[in-house]
Design goal:
alpha+beta, 13 strands, flat
């Protein structure tokens, strides 16, 4: 208050500052704070510990557009449109048979999948051709069908097309904050009926429990956010350390291309490095395709029963980010009389596996890095790096929900929270 000359700023002033004025410069201010930390030897930007958390959005969880529900309603509307068009065509054919003239042109294929723009053109054409005819002939059913198309079906079809644009491949969005996507919140895991809420996925990179990089996404999956997160950094680190959720072929390929040291776990890292003593667990793990012996000369895998799985075909796989990879499919032709089949597969037919040799090489490199002395040290630090930061922000700073709407404004708000966290950390 002393600095402001005993003037109390209005809440609108604060809101405009954080929502509008800081938006174009928040990245610059945050990078200046990080540069200060580097200059003071608080961080070196070498070991980058990255993880994500879900922060609830300022959106109404009861007012949500779901993609599956929208698709179902849109399909019903299109079926209704086709039925009404068929009805108008039937009336037109009956009128032609009675009067010997053609009043309406064919409306296209009977099962045509029309969109809002096409339907609008057809309605305009029908109105033009029926305007005079309907005054002379009391064709009530045609008039009612046309009215229903214009006043009911067209607005609904246009609404669903607009919702498709807003969804942009997501499974949902909040009507009060269209940039927010419904996500499962960690704090609701113990609830009897956990409710997916509008939220944002916040990716944070830390070093020494200082935030040195952040990004906000409306995608619930962590793996597809890593590349976008790293691309937003002003300076790439030397080593990237992350948990098993990020161990995808796409992310490993990105780290290799940018010459970043790979200390990213993959989903089966624990099973591959842990020495089990329970014979039952050991017996189950030997039937994992990762443990099948490979014969490069014949391009075949050998199962625990010493039977061979031969190559079938190669399929293409594309991620949500558009990254393409290949999967080679193999099948064993001698599973029917094999005594180990019940333990090997639940399929009625033969055992099939799909393999990416490139992903196998990436995982091998990651495993070697993570099991080295340095890798063990980084793995131990990772568990107390990012999680501690999230705990401090959510519990000590009581920040569990965004107060602004729109992805850009939310990004600005998290930038201010990150700067505040670093300042509090500096102050001790």
């Amino acid at each position: 208050m002393w600095i402001s000359g005993e003037n109390t700023p209005d809440h609108r002033t604060i809101n405009e500052f954080r929502g509008k004025r800081m938006q174009p410069v928040i990245a610059e201010v945050f990078h200046a704070v990080v540069e200060y930390l580097v200059a003071g030897n608080y961080v070196k930007l070498e070991n980058y510990y990255v993880d994500g958390t879900k922060i609830e959005a300022d959106g109404n969880k009861h007012k949500v557009v779901w993609a599956k529900r929208k698709e179902r309603y849109e399909k019903a509307v299109k079926e209704q449109v086709n039925e009404l068009l068929k009805q108008i065509e039937a009336e037109n054919e009956a009128e032609e048979a009675e009067y010997g003239e053609r009043d309406l042109e064919e409306m296209g294929g009977r099962n045509e999948d029309v969109n809002g723009e096409q339907l609008k053109k057809k309605i305009a054409e029908l109105n033009e051709r029926l305007r005079d005819k309907l005054q002379k002939r009391e064709n009530t059913s045609t008039r009612q069908a046309l009215k229903k198309l214009e006043s009911n079906c067209l607005p609904r079809l246009e609404k669903y097309e607009e919702q498709t644009k807003v969804l942009a491949g997501r499974n949902s969005y909040s009507k009060t904050d269209p940039d927010a996507t419904c996500m499962r919140m960690k704090e609701d895991r113990g609830a009897e009926r956990p409710w997916a809420k509008p939220a944002y996925n916040v990716q944070v990179g830390t070093e020494g429990q200082f935030i040195v990089g952040y990004s906000v996404h409306n995608k619930s999956s962590d793996p597809i956010c890593l590349i976008e997160h790293l691309d937003g950094l002003k300076q790439l680190p030397k080593k990237v350390v992350a948990d098993a959720a990020y161990g995808s072929e796409e992310n490993y390929d990105y780290l290799q291309k940018h010459e970043l040291e790979n200390y990213v776990k993959y989903p089966t890292f624990y099973q591959d490095t842990h020495h089990y003593r329970n014979p039952e667990i050991i017996r189950k793990h030997q039937f994992r395709s990762d443990h099948f012996e490979y014969d490069p000369e014949s391009d075949q895998f050998i199962c625990p029963a010493k039977k061979r799985l031969s190559y079938l075909y190669t399929s293409k796989y594309k991620t949500a980010n558009g990254y393409e990879s290949e999967r080679r499919h193999y099948e064993c032709s001698e599973c029917q009389d094999c005594p180990l089949k019940p333990q090997c597969t639940k399929a009625k037919g033969n055992r099939r596996i799909q393999v990416s040799f490139r992903l196998i090489e990436f995982r091998k490199q990651a495993r070697e890095n993570l099991t080295s002395d340095l890798g063990k040290e980084l793995r131990a630090k990772r568990s107390v790096e990012v999680e501690t930061v999230f705990g401090h922000i959510k519990h000590n700073m009581s920040f569990r929900r965004f107060h602004l709407r729109d992805l850009k404004k939310v990004n600005t708000e998290w930038g201010l929270v990150s700067i505040a966290h670093n300042m509090r950390k500096l102050a001790g």
